[in-house]
Sequence to fold (439 residues):
Amino acid sequence: MAAQLQTEIVPNAPLVPPTVLTPAAHKQAKPKKKLVRRTDKDYSQALRRSYQLGFLLLNVFLGSVFYLWVRHYETGMQTRVVARPAGVEGWLPIAGLMNLKYLLVTGHVPAVHPAAMFLLITFLAMAFLFRKAFCGWLCPIGTFSEYLWLAGRKLFGKNFQLPRWLDIPLRGLKYLLLAFFMWAVSSMSASAIAAFMRSPYGIIADVKMLNFFRNIGQTGLIVLGILVIASVFVQNFWCRYLCPYGALLGLASFFSPLRIRRNEATCIDCEKCAKACPAWLPVDRLASIKSAECTGCLECVAVCPAKGALQMALPSLSQLLYLRGNVISTEAFPSASGRECGVERPGVSQDLRSLANHNERSQFGASAHESSSSRAVSSRQIPAWAMAAGIAVLFFGIVGFAKSAGYWNTDLPRSIYLELVPNPDQASHPMPGDPALKR
Fold:
């Protein structure tokens, strides 16, 4: 080396502790960046809303056909006969979870409500590959909830965020509900699951779900009214705090390699992404979004004005190598990484990244570093059309396989439905220890 670094030791020099900037001070200390505006037209929200509308119409169609099917048996087969639409079993997620355990334990596809299991597998696969895409792109309840808070924003000029001390424990409620259902399913043997599904309650669980809304009482109306009003003021109130299905999909999405990734070199720190995020995630302060609350809705990407600053992307090779080396360094020196208990301290970690960027610029030039950083993000970008295509391939692929293999429909004699459907109140829920579950 032609030049060598020398360290000058100053005697009696005072030891200056490292400065840790607060988020506000750090924001003020950042130099203003030049905006390189996007030239491409974003169509992610139009595409997502078309999926929402299509799936909502599909559910309305399935519900209408299912209602006609129920009426056929309620009237003693006096009305026109229609085939039972197995797709309504998507509204039976607990049955899907029970049947999934039955499949994993026995290796056999269950005979009753198999469509519930295949739809659950489909949505879990979507969550792993495309974040919680079911919640943000397909779920009818999520769609209804989204339009409620959009209406609230139009009426009141804004939506409201609960304080952090209340928001965090409330978010835990959906995980408590999920833990209860997981415990209940895990405590059942495969034979108990099969007996439950063949019980009168298990056979017409979908009919009882329909009748809940057909014959809803005063208490049910009050609860639904509270949820609707809360969803007008707070974004996705049900989804954020109470939906155990969303909690399960969120856990699956936590391990997804696909994430919203921010390029700090091209980001202008306008905070539009964080303001647009319906999950209230600090997109403008993180390099990537790993949170289980992210639904992959791409609203943050849609509002980002800077070219290449924010994208849904897979990790680049350089990022994987950096993460591999960073795991070793954080295990040896956890405080040096600027992350404690999974929370990034903006002053330390960003100062370290700035120092690394400065060293890289000094060796290779600033323009080369910024262009390589931009390529690292964009090289593995997943555009909105690819995400939409992947969602469609998973849905129609798995459902198509189940139908072609003869696993989609529940095959039971019409005499059973004729006996059970007109008298759903006589079918009680089997309880633990019930002799019917030990057959």
